[in-house]
Amino acid sequence: MNWKNILREHIERKVSISDDQFDYIVSFFRPMSFKKKDKLITAGETVQAEYFVLSGCLSTYVVNDEQKMHILQFALHTWWASDYNALYNNDKASVHVDCVSDAEVLCLLNEDREKMCRELHNMESFFRWRSNGGYVSLQKRILSLLNDDAQSRYEELMQQYPELYNLVPKHLIAAYLGVSRETLSRFQPH
């Protein structure tokens, strides 16, 4: 499936768009290819875009003062990734976004998304739906970190996203769950 079909299907899961509107919408997206370990965003830099994943996997993470990595998000097919605080508030990035695997993405500049939303009410609705979905997911993740033990978090992650097991290195899954690699190995089937 080509990238335009993937994007249109994704948008039309929530809003209707005409062919003319879609032709206008795609003019704002720029296809990009990245290799495993390439960085899309580095902490401390200015952020002007967000990325829609066509294939591959991205990770959003921070590295604390003790040089420990904490994964905030894995972004798979049809997910979005950026440093949204930096993007929306014109701050410097506080997170990194890089490629866990080779990835094909669509880049959307913040100014272009804003222009689209001003001109197309249905796209404003789409981006509001997407933001709301992100808030819900973040709330669920925080509640899981507060209330569930590490093994329960691992089992839920593997149930929801079984493709992560073979796509993402185990030390990154451990960083997402907030456990050591050794602890994670006790949860995995042998």
From TrEMBL:
InterPro entries: cNMP-bd_dom (IPR000595), cNMP-bd_dom_sf (IPR018490), RmlC-like_jellyroll (IPR014710). CDD domains: CAP_ED. The keyword Coiled coil applies. Keywords: Coiled coil. It comes from the Bacteria. Residues 140-167 form a coiled coil. This is Crp/Fnr family transcriptional regulator.
